[in-house]
């Protein structure tokens, strides 16, 4: 039994430039073969790939002819939003289905035979149709740009591609007009309904305010200042009336005092009209002159007291002083009168002359004068009472009016809150009505503007193009990419074979892996017959591959140029 062998793992020597050149020589067939196969396949694919034509049109968003500052628009969306809405409508299933099945177009006939119509519509919407925003220079040459968008459609038939783009442009124009008309009508109807509701609301609040004013006339908050001013005026009138009434009361007291004094004077002089005169004996008058003086002083004191009461209060020292003087004079008068009566009684007892009575004309005249004064004073007192009654009526009327005004003023805060709430609602309703009315006017103007096509609109800047050359496929690019991919595949195949080949290929490998000196090398000797046979097979294989590849590429080119109808 043979002994087991021990294998030693050795890392590969890093290759240099000569090694890479040797690799290219050894694996040139592995590089050229896939590269040629990629060229043939890519050329065949490029020529078998049908041409696709792209027709496009440019539509521009024209600004309003009349400035928005003069006539604001009523469309509630910007043009870009309207475009998105129109795009969704135009690319809807119904719209695209109508385009595909229209007899004049008859699009995707082969695809419809294989796939459901929904899939064909989805393919047309996502791959064939392109709607993109773009900026194009304006005609004024100032470097500005106007918003625009392009509509493009790719199809194998260039005439149908152009026709589809033309239909899409027409649909955009029609849809734009329909959207403008619909939004304008909707806005107009909405504004009219709001205006009607605002008018009804305003009329209702006007009726409520009129009813409130009629129910609370004189107590309205807007009459508060006039009520306060009227109250102040009435209070001033009441004060003046009370002062006048007080003056009348003082005047009445003064007249009553004068009446009392005049009555006392008249009584006194009436008592002095009949004089007692002695006849026989000592004929002398029994009249005491001191009593007359005291009586005159008492009358003067009473007059002073009445005058002082008009000026001072009842507790004033001057009043008390005059009252004390009057009391003292009255006491002296009483004492003197008693003394005079005693003297006359004593004289009558001493001699009894015959006493005769006679009328004193002077005293009678004084009594008559005081009687006239009494009548005048009574008349003044009656007039004063009438004036006092009139003033009392005025005071009662003023008090009643003031109480009524106080009630109005006291109830004003509650009414003011209710009135303020009503007025606030009324002002808001009025403002809403006026705003809605202005909006209606703007809506009517904007509606007329849209009818005359003077607002923001669409116009065709570039009509649908007639694509004379296909946009795809790019056959040179496809051939180059196929060739490059074949080369990459060949490089990977050659690299894989090189990694699996562990044989020593040159003297560098021998020196690196054996660490032995090399004395000489013997070239590889092969059978000449085998070498010739191998070369013949290689040339046969390569010739066959080239011929087959050339036939395939030529056939695909012939099919592209002559095999299908234009």
Shape: rod-shaped
User: Which H/E pattern describes the elements?
Assistant: HHEHHHHEEHHEHHEHEHHH
Number of DSSP helical runs: 14
Structural class, by secondary structure, is alpha+beta
Query: What spatial order of strands do you see in the largest sheet?
Result: 2-3-1-6
Could you tell me the number of beta strands? Answer: 6
Q: What does the main sheet amount to?
A: 4 strands, antiparallel
Summarize the amount of helix as a percent range.
55-70%
The rounded distance between the terminal residues' Cα atoms is 81 Å
- Rounded radius of gyration (Å): 69 Å
Outline the low-pLDDT stretches. 141-145, 281-286
* Global mean pLDDT: 76
**Percent range for β-strand residues:** 5-15%
Please tell me about this protein's structure:
The protein has 14 helices and six strands. The protein has helices at residues 17-26, 28-48, 79-90, 93-101, 109-114, 117-128, 158-215, 224-271, 289-311, 317-350, 361-451, 475-500, 507-514, 528-563; strands spanning 53-62, 129-137, 145-155, 274-279, 354-359, 457-462. Among the domains are: 8-47 and 473-519 and 528-561, no CATH class; 225-446. The longest helix is centred in the C-terminal third of the chain and has 91 residues, at 361-451. 70% of the residues lie in helices and 8% in strands. With 566 residues, it is of the alpha+beta class.
Write the layout of secondary structure elements.
Elements: H1 17-26, H2 28-48, E1 53-62, H3 79-90, H4 93-101, H5 109-114, H6 117-128, E2 129-137, E3 145-155, H7 158-215, H8 224-271, E4 274-279, H9 289-311, H10 317-350, E5 354-359, H11 361-451, E6 457-462, H12 475-500, H13 507-514, H14 528-563
Antiparallel strand pairs: 1-3, 1-6, 2-3, 4-5
Helix pairs in contact: 2-12, 2-14, 3-7, 4-6, 7-11, 8-9, 8-11, 9-10
